[in-house]
Write a sequence for this structure.
């Protein structure tokens, strides 16, 4: 059974409980990204030990490469992740060599053999249901930045029209509207009148000014139903998350912490450290962190691994950053509870 409840709300944010597959998650929460049905460099067991019970995968990437077997066994068994799985259908821009096209019917992309296919809203929902995702994001039109207001207007109309075919008990609608207050409000209100489990804010953190991003989150959140989960897509820096939690965002997902880790940037209680550099020296990585990496290895060693481009460097940094994010969300929840 799927359930969501708000337990507390104040100027620091809101505390909620999200339930699926008999697993309960306290919100605000952060979902690690497992685009191609894996969190890059770590195992599902490791993610679970880091405190995570929910992740997000990408339906399009899995559809293009592994749909036969995923249909047979289901996404949970396929990737050996028995926690909650969200799936997003976006990421059409990220298919190498095949930029996707969009029209009023849906999104046109190519399969690895070159064959053209279309995700209509119905087809996209059917694919994610076949995968067995616990929560499914609607098909939306997310224009890349920079965009004209006219292009965003078109995207909003398409997203609303497509949402009608995406409704359902485990579905999240996605609010578009770029950096335009009127379009964000309009899109939020229209989608809020449809039958969705939750609402996601999409099309942000793609190049617009930070202040504009935060403002859009505030405006959109205000126009969403109180008792439904609010998911902010693609925002994953600790600073941004802290700001958006105040406006009542419940769920975040972003590749930011894991991608940064693989490129040698770790988040610590004293700020960011860029590894693989000559000037980085020291014994302790982060004296406030109790993750496997910080408990067992020195900053000198981790820095050396990055300089040598050893794959272990990416693993150790990913473990640390995901541990950091989980503790960071815990801290934000404590602040709300104590306000
Ligand atoms: Zn650590």
């Amino acid at each position: 059974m799927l359930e969501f409840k708000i337990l507390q709300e104040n100027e620091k944010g809101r505390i909620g409980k999200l339930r699926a597959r008999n697993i309960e998650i306290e919100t605000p929460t952060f979902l690690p990204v497992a685009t191609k049905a894996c969190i890059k460099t770590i195992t599902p067991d490791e993610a679970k030990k880091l405190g995570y019970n929910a992740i997000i995968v990408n339906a399009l990437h899995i559809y293009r490469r592994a749909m036969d077997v995923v249909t047979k066994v289901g996404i949970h068994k396929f990737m050996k992740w028995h926690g909650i799985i969200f799936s997003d259908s976006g990421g059409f821009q990220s298919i190498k060599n095949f930029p996707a096209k969009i029209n009023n019917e849906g999104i046109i992309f190519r399969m690895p053999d070159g064959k053209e296919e279309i995700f209509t809203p119905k087809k996209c929902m059917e694919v994610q249901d076949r995968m067995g995702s616990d929560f499914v994001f609607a098909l939306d039109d997310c224009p890349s930045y920079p965009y004209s207001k006219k292009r965003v207007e078109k995207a909003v109309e398409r997203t609303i029209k497509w949402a009608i075919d995406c409704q359902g008990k485990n579905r999240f609608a996605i609010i578009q509207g770029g950096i335009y207050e009127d379009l964000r409000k309009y899109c939020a209100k229209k989608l809020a009148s449809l039958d969705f489990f939750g609402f996601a804010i999409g099309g942000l953190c793609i190049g617009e000014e930070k202040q504009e991003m935060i403002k859009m989150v505030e405006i959109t959140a205000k126009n969403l139903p109180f008792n439904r989960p609010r998911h902010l897509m693609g925002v994953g820096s600790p600073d941004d998350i802290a700001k958006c939690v105040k406006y009542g965002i419940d769920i975040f997902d972003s590749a930011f912490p894991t991608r940064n880790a693989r490129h040698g940037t770790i988040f610590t209680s004293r700020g960011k450290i860029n590894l693989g550099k000559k000037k980085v020296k020291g014994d302790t990585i982060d004296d406030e962190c109790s993750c496997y990496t910080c408990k067992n290895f020195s900053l000198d060693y981790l820095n050396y691994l990055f300089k040598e481009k050893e794959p272990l460097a990416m693993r150790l940094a990913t473990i640390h950053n995901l541990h950091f994010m989980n503790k960071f969300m815990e801290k934000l929840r404590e602040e709300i509870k104590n306000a």
Remarks:
- The pocket of zinc ion is lined by residues 285-286, 289, 291, 293-294, 320, 323 (CB under 6 Å).
- DSSP finds twelve helices and 16 strands in the chain.
- The CA atoms of residues 74 and 131 lie 5 Å apart.
